[in-house]
């Protein structure tokens, strides 16, 4: 006989849900709807259900884990909001007893309950005129990260790096009432969704109240903090939510363990300076050419930062239209078994096709297309491709902490960096 664990909710009880077990989902729902005890209009439906291997054991695990969220100790009623719902589901799906999610023909979407801590439009400085003005100010090159790109990168890191850590998303990582891509940052949504599974200690997100308001979150900066089931939104007087704000820097330097966000490309140099100085762990998105750009080359040369796992070529603009921009994840977490290293081609110099190797006017070797001359001991120039693919993790280092511009027959070519094989002692 199959075993199920479910989350059900009554239409007139948006702040509560029932988490229970049964061998027959259809029968249990009929039982609920025939004995609601409130009114015939309070119809129940399933928000989530899963087939499990041991429903009683999992039910007890939930009672033990979320004892503080039960309305009464002897009843299966739990407090509900979107964040709590994600926590419940995440816990169930990460259990050893979870087998598979049950799909319904007409699933009910979770009711959206506005948290008391969310500021009103007046408190956020939003008016109808504000929204109209915003529409006139936003430029087409303003964009934000897609959830699937965040999930693709962050899923590559071991879950243990997040345990008991404070994550700070400090570049307009708004969290709205609906908590979807229309009013919330993808980074914020990711950590809200996986807060329990990752065993985070705390999540802190800031909204930047600047000229461009991607999430209609208002012109006032705010700080969102989630710790356990507690969620608080603060709007300090005079705070605009910028990463360089004194309060933001205090959070970064005194509370944060890991930074995850997509800082504005136009201010990347300022942002990296603050971030590297903090000595915090990070996983961020930035321009793909940073590793051969003057402001950033020293960070790569001194092993303060390196490429993450994935590149990000597509973003969404305020109209939710995909736009191209050359980005990549960067981090200071160890990258084990980097898949891209396989793209590097370590071969003797004479085996590199002529089209991918040449000498500039000064006699410096230029190498393209992920080729690396493994029998060449002098400095040679490479592009972003080799750096992003991990050549600095394969016995090579940057020898000039500045851009290198080769000249071919007197004509200046695109920027590169000089690397050299590390000499063995």
Low-confidence stretches: 112-118, 128-141
CATH class of the largest domain: Alpha Beta
Portion in beta strands: 25-35%
Summing up helix and strand content along with how strands pair, one would put the structural category as alpha+beta
What is the number of independent domains?
Answer: 3
- The coarse silhouette is elongated
Total DSSP helices = 11
Biggest sheet strand order reads 9-8-7-6-10-11-13-12
Instruction: Estimate percent helicity.
Output: 10-25%
| Radius of gyration (Å) | 26 Å
End-to-end distance, in Å? 67 Å
Largest sheet: 8 strands, mixed
CATH topology of the largest domain: Rossmann fold
Q: Count the beta strands.
A: 22
Going by CATH, the architecture of the largest domain would be: 3-Layer(aba) Sandwich
Average pLDDT score = 85
Domain Bacteriophage T5 Orf172 DNA-binding: 3-68
GO molecular function, one term: methyltransferase activity
GO biological process, one term: methylation
Organism: Campylobacter vulpis
Summarize the structure.
It comes from Campylobacter vulpis. The chain is α+β, with helices and mostly antiparallel strands and 425 residues long. The chain contains eleven helices and 22 strands.
Provide an overview of this structure.
With 425 residues, the chain is α+β, with helices and mostly antiparallel strands. It has three domains: 99 residues; 210 residues, Rossmann fold, CATH 3.40.50; 82 residues, no CATH class. Helices cover 22% and strands 26% of the residues. Helix 9 links the parallel strand 10 and strand 11.
């Amino acid at each position: 006989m199959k075993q199920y664990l479910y989350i059900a909710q009554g239409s007139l009880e948006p702040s509560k849900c029932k988490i229970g077990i049964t061998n027959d989902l259809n029968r249990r729902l009929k039982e609920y709807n025939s004995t609601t005890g409130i009114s015939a209009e309070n119809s129940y439906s399933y928000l989530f259900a899963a087939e499990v291997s041991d429903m009683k054991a999992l039910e007890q695990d939930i009672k033990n884990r979320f004892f503080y969220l039960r309305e009464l100790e002897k009843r299966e009623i739990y407090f509900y909001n979107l964040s709590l719902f994600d926590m419940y589901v995440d816990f169930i799906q990460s259990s050893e007893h979870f087998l598979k999610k049950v799909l319904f023909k007409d699933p009910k979407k979770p009711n959206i309950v506005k948290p008391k801590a969310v500021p009103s439009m007046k408190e956020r400085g939003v008016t109808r005129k504000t929204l109209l003005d915003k529409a006139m100010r936003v430029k087409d090159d303003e964009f934000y990260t897609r959830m699937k790109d965040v999930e693709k990168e962050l899923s590559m890191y071991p879950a243990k790096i997040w345990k008991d850590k404070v994550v700070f998303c400090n570049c307009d990582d708004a969290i709205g009432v609906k908590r979807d891509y229309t009013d919330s940052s993808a980074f914020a949504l990711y950590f809200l969704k996986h807060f329990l599974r990752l065993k985070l200690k705390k999540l802190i997100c800031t909204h930047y109240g600047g000229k461009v308001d991607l999430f209609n979150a208002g012109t006032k900066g705010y700080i969102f903090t989630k710790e356990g089931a507690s969620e608080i939104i603060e709007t300090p007087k005079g705070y605009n939510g910028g990463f360089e704000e004194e309060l933001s820097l205090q959070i970064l330097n005194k509370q944060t363990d890991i930074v995850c966000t997509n800082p504005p490309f136009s201010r990347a140099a300022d942002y990296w300076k603050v971030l590297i100085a903090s000595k915090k762990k990070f996983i961020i998105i930035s321009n793909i050419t940073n590793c051969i750009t003057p402001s950033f080359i020293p960070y790569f040369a001194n092993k303060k930062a390196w490429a993450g796992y994935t590149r990000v070529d597509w973003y969404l603009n305020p109209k939710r239209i995909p736009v191209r921009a050359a980005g990549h994840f960067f981090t200071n977490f160890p990258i084990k078994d980097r898949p891209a290293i396989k793209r590097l081609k370590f071969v003797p110099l004479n085996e590199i096709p002529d089209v991918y190797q040449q000498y500039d006017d000064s006699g410096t070797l230029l190498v393209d297309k992920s080729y690396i001359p493994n029998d060449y001991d002098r400095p040679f120039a490479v592009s972003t491709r080799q750096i992003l693919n991990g050549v600095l993790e394969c016995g090579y280092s940057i020898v000039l902490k500045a851009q290198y511009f080769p000249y071919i027959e007197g004509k200046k070519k695109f920027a590169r960096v000089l690397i050299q094989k590390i000499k063995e002692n």
